[in-house]
């Protein structure tokens, strides 16, 4: 068992990483929560696979379970769905002593986090991470969010969970496409973390390798992310680095109307940004093939026709790293050496054309 403890402010929680956790969900949750009502939030893909067994284990451990299933996919990350879930908690008489458990990928984690943080101004929250994205990134750090129209993660909170369970057994039912999109965040984190972790992603040649090494990749990625979050929970400084590839990536993710997964858009965003940062002399030229080989080895896309369109530039305005018309772009001076490159929004068309 690998346990990474995340301490922020007065609060600390464990991220447990092990492939037997799915057999003792009840005991793990009972180790941090007294008996209570639990809103077990999942989606229409994960629910049929794991909801009944998870409910059984929670009930055996003395919890009362309210299962809540939403349609699978990014469209469920909406204020409407969050509102419906909050209404369900109110209808079933949830109190501040009750809790929310997210059983799913990044969409369910982000959505359930919004619900937990808003209901009665905040009730307990636990994540059971079932996708690779959730196991290497989204379940840790407390960023919760929903989208509004074509604006990504525009409404949300910083709200830390009480416990995160990361079990690779869940990945057995994840499609290759969903696994690979999660791997884009692993490549991102390895490039930020330094040569040792980046060397490890250099050895991943195909999808089978991701599955074989998922536990080690999660442990590495979570250890790095936890350290960043502990140093800068609210993204005033170094946490911005975790957004490498996301400024351009988020802009095309929702413009693609579901055709691109989050990780696929981040893959395109990392490449498009890095190619241009090489042209302007910020990043070294060998970074482009180093990133490209890791991303394409597992079939991730690295470019899109949406880049540089008028709608694309409109979307950049809503990036959270836009401060009064200046975008704080995250670039790499080298592996393990991220920096912020401020760029006026008005200069972005010229920057994007610089290739
Ligand atoms: N909060 C953060 O720090 C953070 C970090 C990275 C990504 N995100 C967000 O996470 C989302 C992407 O996460 P995702 O890739 O997990 O998307 P997702 O939750 O939509 O999961 C991808 C697909 O896999 C299915 N799935 C999940 N686990 C499964 C399993 N074990 N077996 C079978 N199917 C399974 C889901 O139903 C869905 O269809 C985006 O909204 C992104 O913005 C948030
Ligand atoms: O945890 C963080 O901080 C991240 O930026 C992780 C990202 O991978 C993640 O996609 C996050 O949700 C992006 O957040 P946003 O602040 O750009 O909306
Ligand atoms: Zn991301």
From TrEMBL:
Top class in the EC scheme: lyase
Cofactor descriptive note: Binds 1 divalent metal cation per subunit. Can use either Co(2+) or Zn(2+).
Residues reported in the UniProt entry to bind NAD(+): 106-110, 130-131, 143, 152
Cell compartment(s), UniProt: Cytoplasm
GO function terms (MF aspect): 3-dehydroquinate synthase activity
Catalytic activity: 7-phospho-2-dehydro-3-deoxy-D-arabino-heptonate = 3-dehydroquinate + phosphate
Residue span, 3-dehydroquinate synthase N-terminal domain: 69-179
Sorted UniProt keywords: Amino-acid biosynthesis, Aromatic amino acid biosynthesis, Cobalt, Cytoplasm, Lyase, Metal-binding, NAD, Nucleotide-binding, Zinc
InterPro entries named among the record's database cross-references: Dehydroquinate_synthase, DHQ_synth_AroB, DHQ_synth_fam, DHQS/DOIS_N, DHQS_C
Pathway named in the protein's UniProt entry: Metabolic intermediate biosynthesis; chorismate biosynthesis; chorismate from D-erythrose 4-phosphate and phosphoenolpyruvate: step 2/7
Principal location listed in the UniProt entry: cytoplasm
Domain 3-dehydroquinate synthase C-terminal: 182-322
Essential cofactor(s): NAD(+); Co(2+); Zn(2+)
Entry's EC annotation: 4.2.3.4
Residues the record lists as binding Zn(2+): 185, 246, 262
Reported function: Catalyzes the conversion of 3-deoxy-D-arabino-heptulosonate 7-phosphate (DAHP) to dehydroquinate (DHQ).
Entry similarity comment: Belongs to the sugar phosphate cyclases superfamily. Dehydroquinate synthase family.
UniProt-listed HAMAP family: DHQ_synthase
Name of the featured protein: 3-dehydroquinate synthase
The encoding gene: aroB
């Amino acid at each position: 068992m690998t346990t990474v403890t995340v301490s922020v402010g007065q609060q600390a929680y464990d991220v447990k990483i092990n492939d037997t956790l799915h057999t003792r969900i009840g005991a793990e949750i009972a180790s941090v929560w007294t008996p209570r009502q639990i809103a077990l939030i999942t989606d229409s893909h994960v629910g049929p696979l794991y909801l009944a067994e998870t409910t059984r284990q929670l009930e055996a451990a003395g919890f009362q379970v309210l299962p809540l299933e939403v349609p699978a996919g990014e469209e469920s990350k909406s204020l409407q769905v969050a509102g419906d879930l909050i209404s369900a908690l109110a209808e079933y008489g949830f109190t501040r002593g009750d809790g929310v458990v997210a059983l799913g990928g990044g969409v369910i984690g982000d959505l359930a986090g919004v619900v937990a943080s808003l209901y009665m101004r905040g009730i307990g929250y636990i994540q059971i991470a079932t996708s690779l994205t959730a196991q290497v990134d989204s379940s840790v750090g407390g960023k919760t969010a929903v989208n509004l129209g074509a604006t990504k993660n525009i409404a949300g909170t910083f709200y830390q969970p009480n416990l995160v369970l990361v079990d690779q057994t869940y990945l057995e039912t994840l499609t290759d496409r969903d696994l690979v999109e999660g791997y884009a965040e692993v490549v991102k984190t390895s490039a930020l973390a330094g040569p040792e972790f980046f060397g490890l992603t250099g050895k991943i040649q195909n999808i089978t390798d991701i599955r074989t090494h998922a536990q080690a990749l999660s442990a590495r990625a979570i250890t790095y992310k936890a350290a960043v979050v502990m140093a800068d929970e609210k993204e005033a400084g170094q946490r911005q680095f975790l957004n490498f590839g996301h400024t351009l990536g988020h802009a095309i993710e929702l413009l693609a109307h579901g055709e691109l997964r989050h990780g696929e858009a981040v893959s395109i965003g990392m490449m498009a940004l890095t190619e241009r940062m090489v042209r302007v002399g910020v990043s070294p030229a060998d970074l482009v093939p180093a990133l490209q080989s890791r991303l394409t080895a597992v079939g991730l896309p690295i470019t899109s026709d949406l880049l540089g369109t008028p709608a694309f530039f409109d979307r950049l305005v809503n990036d959270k790293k836009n401060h009064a018309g200046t975008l704080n772009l995250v670039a790499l001076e080298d592996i393990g050496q991220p920096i912020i490159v401020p760029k006026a929004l008005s200069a972005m068309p010229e920057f994007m054309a610089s290739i």
